[in-house]
Design a protein that fits this description.
Chain A is α+β, with helices and mostly antiparallel strands. Classes of the chains: A alpha+beta (359), B alpha+beta (800).
Chain lengths: 359, 800
């Protein structure tokens, strides 16, 4: 009988090993362990044996059943793996094919540069103020200490519209400075604002556009002086351009609304006709600034004996051109897709001074 | 303002080198724009000695010269009639650059004779237009010595930018004064000659103004000078004038130009024999005409000041002289005019006539009202020295305007405003060197402005004078500390919404553009039009003549341009202002976008699809979702503004009035009018109309996440076409507000078995039980409620 078990084991082991696929293996299982299988039948016969014989035979049969079950399971896994591999091999696709097209738009360099400057000045405690594009003469000029016959008015190349206010034609603001006036009229010092926005000059050539963008800044309190102006703008320039030791120069100039006035230059070089910002022999003008003219404060009802501060302004396009190497001002407004894709920014390039080590 | 270094040094005694002078010019506020070294122009040339000049064997008009260059003797072919033996001129060797011809010399054969260089004419070195012959230089000059020395081209020409407040630096003496104050050197006093006139001027001068216009010309000084000879100026004067870019004309004209450049004192010389009677300075009569020195005739009006004789206007005061009374080589007797003209009127006259001149440029910035007598004396002396003649007694009419302005400078003001400590002695020294009268008093200084400084109008200006001369570099850098150690956030909710909108749209595949705020009236009219009030008075072109009522036309144009260049299927958006009037409230910030042509391109695994209204509806919803608050679920209405396709467009609004957004196909008639032939869909989101939530709280309401399984049931209703999907969805939704979590449309079906005018709409309703698993009965009941509510609200019938 024991011999019989050995034979059965050997027989089924061979059948299991030889099974080519899961169907054949299942047939082997049924032949061995099915209701009428060989092993099942032997186990059914146990009842007719003598007790001692039954005990030893029972044990042996159980072991046999367990061994065959294990072999079946092992072979089943083997066959399954082979069959899966074969299927997967057939399912191969050409992954070099293109994906479904997904269009990602870009952010215009003017918006991006504005956001960058807001993130820098925001860290210094400035908040963003805004005002209308169509301005009254008084806000755009007179309140800023540019009376009607001032030569500086001619330099502004002002656009006028038909509408009048207080007997003066209204203008398209020539700078963002009127927002200084509107802010100072509305809020008591301390004031610390930046004003990004569209500005307009009646001029159109290679280096002028009838519309462009400025960012204006204004700080008014009781103690801010010209040393702070220098500190604020030097830090801004170095952070914006990401050049730690960028040379920054303050040069006396003239703006009717500031006194003293300074133009701000940054260091650069023009080696081989290529502009490089940083250390060099040359200077590049990027900002106008100065201490707010007491007359401007008085025009807004602020006591100029008590309060003082500084203002500055810069061209957003110019800052973008210098930082990102954009050669032509006029292309900013052409909406040429190739340009927008090339000079534009990814939607998630959100400027932040804490997000990255530098902008 | 162009000037030469040597001329500057006539007024300032300095041992500073050029670089230091340039540095200080810029750092006192006279920004150096360009520096030109004259020697560089002729650096390759030397004095050449023509040893002999023989006729060219094959050309009658040419000569073959043998020229000694200091190194060798070379054969040079030359066509100049004045080239002759034993003459010295300027020689250019092969390989040198000839500025007047813009060529680099090479050895050439001219009619068979090799020419090894060139003897130069004045035109060839850009000295003048003279090309009659070659330059002759004195024979005493050493052969081979520098041409720059020989030609007197040894100067440095400096060009500086003058800000509108610094009229006083439109004369070299003013520049010297600023530099001297900054410590560059010592300002030399100007010598004023004392001329005793021998006779009374036969021409009288009258200031004919009524009281209201007296300020047009408050004072006049001048002289009658007889028997002058107006020839060419002496070389030193010609050199000076040409160095700063002016053309020498005649001695008398050159002298007036000299006074303008040196002392910022424009003056005029009349040919006295052309003056009929006396000189009358008055306002012009409307319709009066003047032929000016530029050869053009100008129509004058009664706001302009003229210098007239008894009959006609002879000069436009402060702007330009007249052709009739101008001086010529034949002039014998002259009238010298040194007057003061009102800056405002002068500027207005020049602007109105569109006439720019060196005189106007100075008068409108204000010339020194206390420098009339002295200027007359200097100019008279120059005329007598150069042109000879005899001067009359000085003519003085009118009264010097009061230019003295007193301002007090407080001790502490410089440090408080400037952030730098300047020693009191230094402060006083700076102001005095700039020409202020300064007296130290308790607590500060009493100052009186110099006559040439109009721009000084208060204490802050005095601070600026001290700071700029003391040097902005000396102001210590102080960090601008903010209040508190953390920033508070720079932008408000409205600004934040714009920023989110921008990045949402870009992420959805639209590219941001920035276009002009103005466009053509024609385009404005297609988009609702702009009121006449916001039309530009002086547009740069008729294409940009009115403020835009919508951003869309600019974007449509831009996409059209891209498409014309072969860049198709593009999507653009812009966030910016649109205008409905001139008041601040009439400006609205709008996010507008256009998608064009194909929304999905044909690819290997998907079919192409054109853009449609649902692409832009999705854009609007994505933005509204970003903006948040009540606008996340606005009401949508069929149809939009007139520039949209009436059937394929919609409007999101809050309540009956507040429009949040339009979206849809652009009206085909509008596209046609704009010459656009590709399909476009658009949206306009009125960001400013999105309400600002009050009392925003950070904490969110608790959420009850049910562990019970949700289940879905599909329904199909037949409805009339006039019924919207939204009505069906809402009707289903409110059938059981507790149980129904979501309703979505999965199918729309028309035609075939359906009656015309009917539509079948398939919806999926999601049930989310909250307390216990639903029984079949409960589900059945809810389904019945849905069917009955949809039927009640929309007339929809469940399809069998």
């Amino acid at each position: 009988m024991i011999d019989n078990i050995i034979v059965i084991k050997s027989e089924f082991s061979n059948l299991i090993n030889d099974a080519e696929n899961l169907e054949v293996l299942e047939e082997v299982r049924i032949a061995a362990l099915g209701k009428k299988g060989r092993i099942t039948s032997l186990m059914k016969n146990l009842g007719q044996m003598k007790p001692e014989e039954r005990k030893s035979m029972g044990q042996n049969l159980n072991i046999l059943k367990q061994e065959i079950t294990n072999l079946l399971e092992i072979r089943k896994v083997e066959l399954e793996t082979t069959s899966l591999n074969a299927r997967l091999h057939k399912e191969r696709v050409d992954v070099t094919l293109p994906t479904r097209p997904e269009e990602l738009g870009t952010i215009h360099p003017i918006s991006q540069t504005t956001d960058e400057l807001i993130s820098i000045f925001g860290e210094m405690g400035f908040s963003v103020a805004e005002g209308p594009n169509i301005e009254e003469d008084w806000y755009n000029f007179t309140a800023l200490n540019i009376p009607i016959d001032h030569p500086a008015r001619q330099e502004h190349d002002t656009f006028y519209i038909n509408a009048e206010k207080d007997g003066q034609r209204m203008v398209l603001r020539t700078h963002t400075s009127p927002v200084q006036i509107r802010t100072m009229q509305k809020h008591e010092p301390p004031i610390r604002i930046i004003v990004p926005g569209r500005t307009y000059r009646c001029d159109h050539d290679a280096t002028h556009s009838p519309m462009f963008h400025q960012i204006e800044g204004l700080v008014i309190d009781e103690t801010t002086h010209m040393g702070h102006l220098k500190g604020c703008l030097i830090e801004m320039c170095r952070t914006f351009f990401g050049i730690e030791n960028l040379p920054v120069r303050f040069r006396p100039s003239y703006f009717p609304f500031t006194e003293p006035s300074a133009e701000v230059d940054i260091g650069c070089s023009f080696g081989n006709g290529i502009l490089k910002i940083g250390e060099g022999d040359d200077w590049l003008e990027i900002l106008g600034s100065g201490m707010v003219n007491p007359r401007v404060l008085e025009n807004c009802g602020i006591d100029s004996q008590k309060f003082q501060g500084f203002a500055f302004g810069m061209g957003v396009e110019r800052m973008a051109m210098l930082k990102y190497g954009i050669p032509d001002l006029r292309t900013f407004y052409d909406s040429d897709m190739r340009w927008l894709k090339h000079y534009g920014f990814q939607p998630f390039d959100i400027p932040s001074l804490v997000g990255r080590a530098s902008l | 303002m162009k000037f030469s270094l040597s001329w500057l040094k006539e007024y300032i005694d300095t041992d500073k080198n050029l670089d230091e002078i340039l540095h200080w010019l810029t750092m006192v506020g006279l920004e150096v724009e360009k520096v030109e070294d004259q020697t560089q122009l002729v650096k390759d040339f030397v004095v050449g000695h023509i040893v002999d000049a023989k006729p060219h064997p094959d050309a009658d008009r040419l000569k073959v010269l043998r020229v000694k260059t200091g190194i060798e003797i070379l054969e040079v072919v030359c066509g100049a009639p004045n080239a002759r033996s034993d003459m010295k001129g300027i020689f250019a060797c092969n390989g040198s650059y000839i500025p007047g011809l813009d060529v680099t010399l090479k050895t050439t054969k001219i009619r068979g004779v090799t020419s090894n260089g060139m003897m130069l004419s004045e035109r060839e070195v850009n000295l003048s237009d003279d090309h009659e012959g070659i330059i002759e230089v004195p024979n005493k000059l050493e052969t081979g010595s520098s041409a720059a020395e020989a030609l007197g081209l040894t100067d440095i020409i400096i060009d500086i930018a003058i800000t509108p407040n610094r009229g006083d630096c439109l004369g070299i003496y003013g520049i010297a004064r600023d530099l001297a104050a900054a410590g560059v050197g010592i300002l030399k006093p100007i010598k004023i000659p004392d001329i005793k006139g021998g006779f009374e001027s036969p021409i009288k001068v009258n200031l004919n103004f009524n009281d209201a216009d007296k300020d047009a010309c408050p004072i006049f000084t001048g002289r009658y000078i007889r028997n002058v000879k107006n020839g060419e100026s002496p070389q030193w004067l010609k050199d000076k004038i040409s160095a700063v870019g002016l053309r020498p004309i005649s001695a008398l004209v050159d002298i007036t130009n000299y006074m303008t450049i040196a002392h910022c004192r424009p003056l005029h010389v009349f040919d006295a024999d052309k003056i009929n009677g006396n000189i009358n300075i008055r306002l012009a009569q409307a319709g009066e005409k003047l032929l000016a020195l530029d050869g053009k005739e100008y129509n004058l009006d009664d706001k302009m000041t003229v210098i007239a004789d008894d009959h006609n206007a002879e000069a436009l005061a402060g702007v330009m002289g007249g052709e009739n009374s101008g001086v010529s080589k034949k002039t014998i007797n002259v009238m010298l005019e040194t007057a003061y003209f009102d800056p405002v009127r002068t500027a207005a006259t020049g602007r109105k006539l569109n006439l720019q001149s060196d005189a106007r440029f100075r008068f409108e910035r204000g010339v020194d009202p206390a420098f009339l007598n002295d200027a007359t004396e200097i100019a008279t002396q120059m005329i007598l020295d150069i042109c000879g003649g005899e001067a009359s007694k000085i003519i003085n009419v009118g009264q010097e305007p009061d230019w003295r302005k007193k301002y007090f400078l407080t001790n502490s003001r410089i440090e408080k405003l400037g952030g730098v400590e300047v020693a009191p002695d230094r402060t006083q020294e700076i102001l005095e060197k700039l020409g202020f009268e300064v007296s130290k008093v308790d607590g500060g200084w009493e100052t009186i402005t110099p006559s040439w400084r109009y721009d000084i109008a208060g204490e802050a200006d005095l601070v600026e004078e001290v700071l700029r001369i003391n040097g902005f570099d000396n102001i210590p850098i102080v960090p601008l500390e903010r209040e508190g150690s953390l920033p508070k956030g720079a932008i408000n909710l409205t600004q934040d919404r714009r920023s989110r909108t921008r990045r949402t749209l870009a992420h959805r595949g639209l590219t941001e553009a920035v276009t002009f705020s103005f466009l053509s009236t024609e385009h404005a009219d297609l988009f609702g039009g702009s009121p006449k009030n916001i039309e530009l008075v002086n547009p740069i072109s008729s294409e940009l003549d009115i403020m835009r009522p919508s951003i869309l036309p600019n974007l449509i144009n831009a996409i059209g341009r891209n498409s014309d260049k072969g860049y198709n299927n593009t999507s653009l958006f812009e966030i910016g202002p649109q205008f409905s009037g001139e008041n601040p409230n009439d400006e609205n910030i709008v996010a507008a976008g256009i998608r064009s042509q194909q929304a999905k391109l044909r690819t290997w695994n998907e079919a192409a699809r054109d853009v449609d209204v649902f692409d832009v509806k999705a854009d609007v919803l994505a933005v509204l979702n970003q903006i948040g608050g009540p606008v996340a679920s606005p009401q949508v209405m069929q149809g939009a503004a007139s520039w949209y396709h009436p059937g394929k467009s919609g409007t999101f609004q809050l309540g009956p009035q507040k429009i949040i957004a339009y979206f849809g196909d652009i009206h085909p008639a509008v596209l046609k009018a704009m010459n656009i032939s590709i399909p476009m869909v658009a949206f306009e989101i009125y960001l400013d109309n999105a309400p600002i939530p009050k009392n925003a709280v950070n904490a969110r309401p608790p959420i009850n996440i049910s562990t019970l399984q949700a289940l879905e049931r599909d329904f199909a209703f037949v409805i009339e076409e006039a019924i919207t999907a939204d009505q069906v969805v809402r009707a289903a939704f409110i059938a059981d507000r507790q149980l129904i979590a979501d309703v979505t449309v999965f199918d729309i079906f028309k035609g075939k078995t359906l009656e015309t005018g009917n539509v079948s709409i398939g919806i999926t309703v999601k049930f989310q039980p909250k307390e216990a698993t639903l029984t079949e009965d409960e589900i059945e009941n809810t389904c019945k409620k849905i069917i009955s509510n949809v039927s009640k609200q929309t007339g929809g019938v469940l399809r069998g």
